[in-house]
Amino acid sequence: MRDIIPTLLSIGVGFAISFFGLDFYSDSLKNENKIIAQSNEVTAPIETVETSSKEEALPKPVSENDMPKEAMTAEEPSTGATSIDVEDIQKSFDNWEAYTKENIDLMATFTPLDNEGTAMEKGIFLTLLRTGAYIPIKSEKDGKLQYQLTNIDESADEKIKKSIVSKASIAHQYFKMEGKKLPNYNFVDLKGKAHNKADTKGKLLVLKCWFITCKVCVEEFPELNELVDKYKDDKIEFVSLAFDKKNELVEFLETKEFKYPTIPEQKDYMAKKLKVKQYPTHLIVDANGVIIKMVSNVKTLTSELKRIMGK
């Protein structure tokens, strides 16, 4: 009997230890999972911007510090296929550039997805891209554009990382301007006509930011003229802001048809007030003077106007 009592006590103590140990392990596992989940939610932004020179065949974005005396220029993406090999596009910088030119415009209207395919806020999406840890991959759902975060390969060319950081940084800057009031303005165009808030109240205002020696800026003229014709019966005012002096613009526009009224010597307004980072840049401003979109090419401008105007 005396031998059984210690045995029973031993079994009881062992059971208690097992029970409380299991409970402690369960709580620890929950806390560990919670910590992992929280660590995946926070990523600090990076303010790095890629710098590159303006090529003759295809102008590329460059930073403010490295841009020519006139300004920096932006390439134009075009529509392309959505079925791609994620590994293949990261094998070389040329592959990546070809893919992004055809498929990616971070200033367009799209559904941002995290790396598990869950919709997320655009500002967070762009901030994560600015870390250089991800690339965006295009897809479509129900006819709507989507970009999904995808982890960049460790072996990928460093230029790919710099490129996406640059594009995401500019797109994030423009995204932050959306929803803000257009800074005060009182423009006088080349023909002496005034353009101010009183004149544009109740209208949609479309602004183009450019300069004479910007090759891609000038190449957009025919498509922009088509937009002016398309929306001539709508309450839209198209205005262009240029770096150049009046006499230079008058002489230049005698050789190039451009249907936007043009305002000379607006470099400071564009850079300091509108925070323009590359050229061309287009702004769409609503009837209340609020910036609703900033984009860098005529193709995206066209699609955004179609979305807003319904035609």
- Fraction of residues in β-strands: 15-25%
| Morphology | globular
**Strands, total number:** 10
Number of helices: 10
Strands side by side in the biggest sheet: 8-7-6-9-10
| Low-confidence parts | 1-66, 78-82
Mean pLDDT: 80
Question: Can you tell me the number of structural domains?
Answer: 2
SSE ordering: HHEHEEHEEHEHHEHEHEEH
Helix content: 25-40%
Rg, rounded, reads 27 Å
Q: How many strands, what sense, and barrel or not for the largest sheet?
A: 5 strands, mixed
Structural class: alpha/beta
Distance separating the two termini: 95 Å
Account of the 3D structure:
- The protein has 311 residues and is of the alpha/beta class.
- It has 2 domains: 43-177, no CATH class; 186-309, 3-Layer(aba) Sandwich (Glutaredoxin), CATH 3.40.30.
- Helix content is 39%, strand content 16%.
- It has 10 helices and 10 strands.
- It has helices spanning 4-39, 93-103, 122-129, 158-177, 197-200, 215-219, 221-230, 246-253, 267-273, 298-309, and strands at residues 111-113, 134-141, 144-151, 186-188, 194-196, 204-210, 236-242, 262-263, 281-285, 291-295.
- It has a 5-stranded mixed β-sheet. The chain has a 3-stranded mixed β-sheet with strand order 1-3-2, with helices on one face.
- Helix 3 (122-129) runs antiparallel to helix 4.
- The longest helix is centred in the N-terminal third of the chain and has 36 residues, at 4-39.
- The protein starts with a helix and ends with a helix.
